[in-house]
Design brief:
single chain, alpha/beta, 6-stranded parallel β-sheet, 3-stranded parallel β-sheet, about 40% helix
């Protein structure tokens, strides 16, 4: 049994010198992160398609079992709304090719305005995608979470392409009023939708957003510990990303989530030992 866990990024200022060695050259930062977690969200690709050379450095810093979930560029999903995107899609796929098996799922994050009436565009887009990759779709329109017919139609579209529905669980964030600037900012920007936990494929992907308070974050993920353990027992291979509003503790929290699942299922393969943030003392 192997559970993959990770964060929204592989480098963050509050991690440097606390969890990850500092300073580190850019071409070594992912390697250090990969000693803590075995997956990472590819949010950077949403803003710009990286060069192939850059992606080759990512592959060189990780083993083939490491999981990237690269997000399709916003020009495809938000600006063009999945239409007339052949050139942009071709460039993106060519850029991420060096990841090989590390490109576990290509992440299609759709804007909140993408409604059930737009499912035809999604179905047509998924049909055009190469079969060499797996795909996951994140929707934010509330109708998909509150209207059973809309949810069923979306699941049918995804099933036709063997794609997963990627939930972004923000329930813990919105359970009570924010207590920090980062939480207040998250309240304005993050989707407020009901929790969804039905896996459509053998490789579900979950995004969980907690609070800046560690204990509240841990308490909020108890549901997912049980759900992920059940998926593993069913033979599924899940990936879970742990977020907090400021992400300052997200790196050790991702490992803690993994530990919590292993406490339920000891057969889950352990994570590697992290590289020390500081060199060992001589005396």
């Amino acid at each position: 049994m192997r559970l993959h866990v990770g964060c929204a990024m592989w480098t963050l200022a509050p991690w440097q010198g606390r969890f990850l060695p500092h300073p580190l050259p850019p071409k070594e930062r992912l390697r250090a992160y990969a000693s803590w977690c075995n997956a990472v969200e590819g949010n950077t690709t949403f803003y710009a398609t990286p060069t192939r050379d850059t992606v080759e450095t990512w592959a060189g810093q990780t083993d083939p079992g490491f999981r990237f979930i690269p997000k399709l560029p916003k020009t495809i999903t938000h600006e063009r709304r999945l239409g007339d995107v052949e050139e942009e899609l071709r460039a993106f796929l060519a850029a991420i090719e060096p990841l090989g098996p590390r490109a576990h799922t290509l992440w299609v994050q759709l804007p909140a305005a993408f409604a059930p009436a737009d499912l035809g565009a999604l179905a047509a887009f998924l049909r055009r995608l190469p079969g060499s990759y797996r795909y996951g779709v994140e929707v934010r329109h509330r109708a998909f979470f509150e209207d059973a017919r809309a949810a069923r139609l979306l699941e049918q579209v995804l099933a036709g392409a063997g794609a997963e529905w990627i939930p972004f669980d923000t329930v813990t964030l919105f359970q009570s009023l924010p207590t920090s600037d980062a939480e207040r900012d998250a309240w304005l920007k993050k989707p407020r939708v009901p929790r969804r936990s039905r896996a459509l494929t053998d490789r579900p992907v979950v995004r969980y957003l907690g609070r800046d308070d560690v204990d509240r974050t841990v308490e909020g993920w108890r549901f997912w510990v049980d759900t992920v353990a059940a998926w593993l027992r069913e033979g599924r291979s899940p990936t879970v990303f742990v977020h907090t509003p400021d992400n300052a503790e997200a790196l050790p929290l991702a490992r803690r989530f993994h530990d919590d699942v292993r406490a339920v299922l000891p057969r889950v393969e352990p994570l590697p030992e992290p590289v020390p943030a500081e060199p060992p003392a001589l005396f």
